[in-house]
Amino acid sequence: MNVFGWMNDQLLRMTLLNELVGQGVASVGLDPASRLGGSVQFFVYDVIKIFILLSVLIFTISYVQSHFPPERTRALLGGRSGLGANTLAALLGTLTPFCSCSSIPLFIGFTAAGLPLAVTFSFLISSPLVDLASVILLASIFNWPIALAYVAVGLVVAIVGGTVIGRLGMEDQVAAFVRAVPVTGEVATMTRAERVTYARDQVVEIVHRVWAYVLIGVGIGAAIHNWVPAEVISTLLGQDKWWSVPTAVIVGIPMYADIFGTLPIAEALVGKGVGLGTVLAFMMAVTALSLPSLIMLKRVVKMPLLVTFTGVVIVGILSIGLIFNAISNWFI
């Protein structure tokens, strides 16, 4: 346990890096204990840490993803139905794209291939909401119980959400052109060198796509952490406030960011005493129900199905937020 704790602190939390950044801040005449100095330390440390972890994790996970192209994922799900198929779809969603907008083309392909609506929606919810990188990044900021709890509840939302949508029998609410999209066959197997190249290219592409959101998220986190009084945050989003979870969802939906950009904000909010459930609800709303992804989804499904999907996911997120606020002492 001591070895595990040391590895978690040094490799994930990067406490040595934080100390070095603090020394660097002090060397330029800023006091790390002051608001300005603390904000600078928070910003520099979190940006460096997130980008290091992000690059390593994306490379590793993309290498794994290269074994699961859309055609293979579709083949694994083909011919399956019921709770088992929804669970498998949600699990496979953890190995696919990092944001909801890039998972929608896969949703179209799965629907065109004739997969049940319940399966495709379990995948669509899980793909942006939960991924292997989120486990490591959450553990680096909070702890392993919280990281694993986030993944578990994310999968529950995906499985239950897909099941509910499937039971409603709304197959006729998918745009007609989606069913007519041609389905490609199995792709050729990559060589090891091609997998390495693919993983490297994914690092470049994803970092290029999310770097601005990471900087904005860390900046907001630094401001909350050092400039916004804890009593103000507590008044607005305190764990004892019934409106904290709905407010977090309402604030999160209009935003567009990957989980990588929301983590620094979540870290700062928890540090100010915001309930764990409220923070999880905020992160889930941003990643699973971002406004741009809903606009894209509207192009491939009809309004009744879009409203149903949004409503089911919101109810799931609200439920999880309220439950985790009630049991947060188990994790913190």
UniProtKB/TrEMBL annotation:
Transmembrane segments: 42-64, 114-139, 146-165, 210-230, 242-263, 275-297, 304-327
Assigned keywords, A-Z: Cell membrane, Membrane, Transmembrane, Transmembrane helix
Membrane topology: Multi-pass membrane protein
The keyword Repressor belongs to this UniProt entry's keyword annotation: no
Keyword ATP-binding (UniProt): no
Localisation per UniProt entry: Cell membrane
InterPro entries xrefs: DUF318, UPF0718_permease
Domain of life: Bacteria
Pfam families, sorted: ArsP_1 (PF03773)
Protein family according to the UniProt entry: Belongs to the UPF0718 family.
Protein name as annotated: Permease
Lineage summary: Bacteria, Pseudomonadati, Pseudomonadota, Alphaproteobacteria, Rhodobacterales
